[in-house]
Amino acid sequence: MLPTQTIEELISVSYVSAVIARSGFSPNTIAKDYGVDLEVRRIGIHGTKRIDLGVLLDLQLKASINWSADETHITFDLDSDAYNRLIFRRENSTTPCALVLCCLPKDEASWINVCEDELTIKKCCYYHFIEGSETQNSSSKRIRIPRSQLLTPQSLNNLKQKLYDGALS
Predict the structure, then answer these.
(1) Residue 153: is it exposed, middle or buried by C-beta count within 10 angstroms (0-12/13-18/19+)?
(2) What pLDDT score does 164 carry?
(3) Cα–Cα dist 108/115, whole Å
(4) Is the pLDDT of residue 142 over 90?
(5) How far apart are the C-alpha atoms of 79 and 59, rounded to whole Å?
(6) From CA 26, how far away is CA 18, in angstroms rounded?
(7) Residue 167 pLDDT more than 80?
(8) Quick one: which of 127, 39, 134, 28 has its CA closest to 86?
(9) pLDDT band (50, 70, 90) for residue 169
(10) DSSP state of 96
(11) For the residues 116-139, what does the mean pLDDT come to?
């Protein structure tokens, strides 16, 4: 049996990959974990052939049952090292990297439901671009993600447009 944390991670990769694919992009899993779990790759058409146009966005995935929600935000305690790596990455990379938090219910039995008509993965994922300076905290950094930043095919396409418009870096 896999450890619970590994199951959470695999569920988040599957969930986010499905959202990326439905948005018309191609998900690419990164073999070595240096702070990026998935790439969102743009696919274009040249004549009658499809062509890979490169990375649009990198994603660092986190899956957890340890989150809370209020009317406007999701609150999560992100590991300090992961937080600092995202800050360093933002300042030193030309490709934006978003944190994606896969919020799972506390009851493991409700994470996935399978029947002939559907596959349901509960609850959902939110994206967030970490900003600011590195934390001096030794264990974690509390982050608040606006609930409006729900990861959907439409939100990925909106992010693509913001990147093209220069409104996101």
Answers:
(1) middle
(2) 83
(3) 17
(4) yes
(5) 16
(6) 10
(7) no
(8) 134
(9) low
(10) -
(11) 95
Q: How far apart (Å, rounded) are the C-alpha atoms in residues 127 and 16?
A: 10
Within 10 A of 139 (CB to CB), how many other CB atoms are there? 9
Q: Which two tokens stand for residue 156?
A: 């990925």
How far apart (Å, rounded) are the C-alpha atoms in residues 113 and 33?
29
Beta bridge partners of 74: 69, 145
Beta-ladder partners of 75: 68, 144
What value does the mean pLDDT take over residues 98-120? 96
Render 9-74 in DSSP notation, one character per residue. HHHHHHHHHHHHHHTT-EEEE-SS-SS--EEEEEEEEETTEEEEEEEEEEEEEEEES-EEE-SSEE
Q: Is residue 168 predicted with pLDDT exceeding 80? A: no
Amino acid at 70: D
pLDDT at res. 146: 98
Predicted local confidence at residue 33, as pLDDT? 82
**With contact defined as beta carbons under 8 Å apart, do 125 and 151 qualify?**
yes
Helix axes 4-22, 153-165, angle to 10 degrees: 70
